[in-house]
Amino acid sequence: SAALVVLAAGTARAASESCQELxxxxxxxxxxxxxxxxxxxxxxxIQLDTSCGPAYLALGELRAKMGDGKxxxxxxxxxxxxxxxxxxARLARARVRRAMGQREEASEDVRAIFDAPGxxxxxxxxxxxxxxxxxxxxxDEEGARPAQLAVWRRIYALAVRADDLYKNxxxxxxxxxxxxxxxxxxxxxxxx
Length: 192
Hints:
Layout (H helix, E strand, L loop, with lengths): L1 H30 L3 H14 L4 H13 L3 H14 L4 H13 L3 H12 L10 H18 L2 H17 L2 H26 L3
């Protein structure tokens, strides 16, 4: 029985390594504009290891890039069901859903990222900031300046509490907050 455990662990590790190699090959094909081969590699990786999160993410993003939002949504949803910690797929799915006009579902996906416990931890902060920035851009598209300002302030607060990398971003964010606040004042006084 101990031999079976060792064998199973070795098999799982080999599948994971093979999965990563197939994803690497898929990305190379994608860079070479050979989308069919890239999709094939990603699908092979998923067949080999149904918990290969990077394969779901890559396949979903490629499907979205090719204009097949419905299939991209299906792939990313399946990836999230099989690999619940695949938060990057949630952001990718939010973008796909937004592009398909499913604004409420897209908003739910990004909120699930930045409202999750530990969203401001060092490990998840970059994804949290990416989700918040996406939300700020959506609010900008909709002309929802007060909501956009609130999101930029939240990003700023994360950046100020973070390490030097994000502190460098804080001056950019301060300018965005000032710009959005100025836009709001102009709207209130009718000068825009």
